[in-house]
Amino acid sequence: MSRNCFIRVAGILGVAAILSGPAIAEPMHGIAMYGDPALPPDFTHLPYANPDAPTGGRIVTGEVGGFDSLNPHIRAGSTPWQLRFLAYESLMGRSYDEPFTLYGLLAETIEVDPDSLWVEFQLRPEARFSDGSPVTVEDVIWSYETLGTIGHPRYLNAWNRVASIEAVGERGVRLTFTEADREFALIMGLRPILQRAQYEGRDFTQSGIDIIPIASAPYVISDFEAGRFVQLTRNPDYWGRDLGFRRGTNVIDEIRLEFFGDGTAMEEAFIAGEITTLRETNAADWATEYDFPRVQSGEVVLSEIPHQRPTGMFGFVMNTRSPQFEDWRVREAMIQAFNYEYINVTQNGGLAPRITSYFSNSILGMEEGPATGRVAEYLEPFADDLLPGAIEGYAFPASDGREANRSGIRAAMSLFEDAGYTVEDGVMTGPDGEPFTFEIVLQQGSAENQAIINTYRESLDRLGISPTVTTIDSAQYRERTDAYDFDMTYFQRGVSLSPGNEQRLYWGCEMADTPGSRNLMGVCHPAIEAMVDVMLTSESQDDYRAAVRAMDRVLTSGRYVIPIWYSPISRIAHNVELRYPDRLPIYGDWLGFQPDVWWVEE
Questions:
Q1: Whole-angstrom distance, CA of residue 264 vs CA of residue 447
Q2: Exposed, middle or buried: residue 542 (CB in 10 Å: 0-12, 13-18, 19+)?
């Protein structure tokens, strides 16, 4: 970072510190980054939960792939993603109707330093693990230290910013931070809590299907077969069932996760009634393929769940660690050659809108045209380091929808020429005289991604480029992407209405060289680092949103991902007995929407 950049960012952070002013810390039932939590200490249920929902019933979901581990907190192995949320409780719980707001869960209260340098939690005396043992301060401290030092990379970066963790009295835990951070107290409140005794004498980093987690959440693993299914059963003795935060949630008795070799097999299982719910991501299929007998008879209901979430970024990421994709002009050429409009017609009937930036479809997304106001001020110190379009405005190309995509191919060819490439004997050749080629690594089971890439390869062939496509199973795919052993692969990165420290995990400099991180493109840019800093110290929503919009411009103009589509709604086909509340939060169908607030009504 240049000296001018440093001065500018330091000035921004200094203003934030001055604005915070003196205050007095006090224990609270919840925490909001801006203002106060919307719900009072004695709230009876979350606004979007049905407190009268009946308990009982069963839901069977489908997943493509397999698993060889039941520990979602380590790098080793492949784990059903749902276990992170269904089997483990955290000190605080998120309200999906309030970005940046948490309420006490395992913790009865939270107390935050007015200068954002420490946070203190007081455990509920009734909090228990599924074996009946109490959740103790020792369990909390061990969980934080273990996950922060040898756990999955998603936990490591934040732990580096914890100066100390200590017990305070019988039920208190205090974390002191290395630097002021308004969001950090919230992040620390969302760490999963594990039972220390279960892992005594074991290598935590190697645990797999031989250890069934002792849960602190409403569900326990009651049965499983490696690679085929996991069954979770609602714990009738769950300690928190009477909490206002939990009333009306997690009421289904049995959750079964069935695994399939590919999407086609999973869909056939749903049609046959072997699984009871299915999410459809293809707009054309939703419109034309869901008229099978179970739908016609009313046994299956088709539900559309609207949301106001950012699109995130879904598409095909280019690994800038690979020499083929170091040059932004080459990355832009690859984007120009991708005929989105034609692919959208073939895959979605032309019905799916394209992702336009990482935070599009939300109030946090970058606006069209040149940067203005606070966004322009935040970007100005980095102007010399930004790629074309960051300040002036950048938009992904649009074709005429024809298969040839002549304008896109011409633009791509011009960019390759600017970067020193030539076509010799029909082959795109680099400045070093070697043919330009690269490897696209895909995971087995995604027919849609394979179809997209097949069409894309035809476009690249017009440029004299013949990439290698490698399709591998989920375990091999995880191993290769963790080691960044790919040139291009499918990319999906969901973002929320309350982005913060996790952005360092997605595109932070430290994560660019950390094996297993989520920074697949290998981006490292001082403007991104600075914008995350501003986001975490802003005293107003306006400054915060400007910082996110500025970061969105840097990421989007970086041309790291070839974006595909998103949906402003979630499409869920499900058995008629599966119900959800009429009142939906702004997040709509969030990560745990089903089964968290669903119930079975026979």
A1: 8
A2: exposed
Looking at this protein, which amino acid is placed at residue 123? L
* In contact, 553 and 391? CB cutoff 8 Å: yes
Q: In 135-199, where does DSSP find H-type helix? A: 137-150, 153-159, 184-189
Residue 10 has pLDDT above 50, yes or no: no
Integer angstrom CA distances of residue 53 from 45, 249, 514: 12, 8, 44
SS3 labels along 256-268: EEEEECCHHHHHH
Rounded to 5°, the CA angle 544-546-550 comes to 120
pLDDT tens readout for residues 214-234:
988 999 999 999 989 999 999
Taking phi over 0 as left and psi of -120 to 50 as alpha, with beta for the rest, 557 belongs to alpha
Q: What is the C-alpha to C-alpha distance for residues 561 and 356, in angstroms, rounded to an integer?
A: 11
Within 10 angstroms of residue 398's Cβ, the number of other Cβ atoms is 12
User: Where is average pLDDT lowest: 17-21, 251-255, 504-508, 584-588?
Assistant: 17-21
pLDDT for the residue numbered 44: 97
Residue 24 — very low, low, confident or very high, per pLDDT cuts 50/70/90? Answer: low
For 24, 319, 443, 515, the CA distances from 542, given in Å and listed in that order, are 25, 33, 41, 35
* Distance from C-alpha of 539 to C-alpha of 19, rounded to nearest angstrom: 7
Q: In this structure, is the dihedral angle defined by the CA atoms of residues 484, 486, 487 and 491, taken in order, positive or negative?
A: negative
Average per-residue pLDDT for the chain: 92
Q: Among 207, 231, 225, 107, which residue's Cα sits nearest to residue 152?
A: 207
Q: Residue 427 corresponds to which tokens in the numbers above?
A: 């082959």
> pTM (2 decimals)?
0.73
Q: Which residue in this structure is represented by tokens 């095909």?
A: 316
Q: Which residues lie closer than 8 Å to 461 by C-beta, 6 or more apart?
A: none
DSSP 3-state assignment of 422?
Answer: strand
Give the 3-state secondary structure of residue 82.
coil
